[in-house]
Amino acid sequence: MRRLTLLVAILAVLGGVAAGTALATGDEKASAKKPVTNTMCPLMGDEVSAKVRTEHDGQWVYFCCAGCVESFKADPAAAIAKMSDSDKAAIQKNATCPISGEAISSFKVRSEFEGRFTYFCCPSCKTTFDKDHPGAK
User: Which of 3, 12, 99, 108 has the fewest CB atoms within 10 Å distance of its CB?
Assistant: First the structure.
């Protein structure tokens, strides 16, 4: 009886460790795929939601709530001025093609991937990118 109790206790501990590891791995995967450019709301300074965004100057800008989107649209320059340098950089369009390395002269060819627009020098480069990045559109 004593051995059975010890065995049950060991299995319970091992099961808890395995469940904790699975949860941690799931959280890491979820946070690694969070589709955003900027990480902080330009108006409130709160963490952004991947569902609340507006396009500004060719890139997505994310917000904590829908009310902030409307305030941003009223004066985007003031809101952007409050952003961190890294968030300001994150909402800029890429100036060189990620496939060819050439400068982009016309920002007409783009794909959206993981909540961000990527621009290309030509449709051929976009096709290459889209093939290599499932879910790009």
Answer: 3
